[in-house]
Write a structure and sequence with these properties.
Number of helices: 0
Structural class: mainly beta
Order of helices and strands: EEEEE
Length: 62
């Protein structure tokens, strides 16, 4: 894993994204519940806290 944060949570593109490759940061974008971009579906996301330092991401298509 690279030094620094294990996750990058971003918005602005309005396109849902959950990209994770072994040994790299996870890149997560919840998308947009109102103004999707580039033909992307409307979406929102949850980051659910798991025991320890783990989170479970979930993108929900609307």
């Amino acid at each position: 894993m690279p030094h620094g944060p294990g996750w990058v949570l971003h918005g602005h593109t309005h396109v849902p994204r959950d990209e994770h490759r072994r040994g790299q940061r996870r890149i997560f974008n919840p998308g947009s519940a109102g103004l999707a971009n580039k033909g992307a579906p409307l979406s929102l996301a949850f980051l659910e806290k798991e025991p320890g330092d783990f989170f479970r991401p979930r993108v929900v298509l609307l």
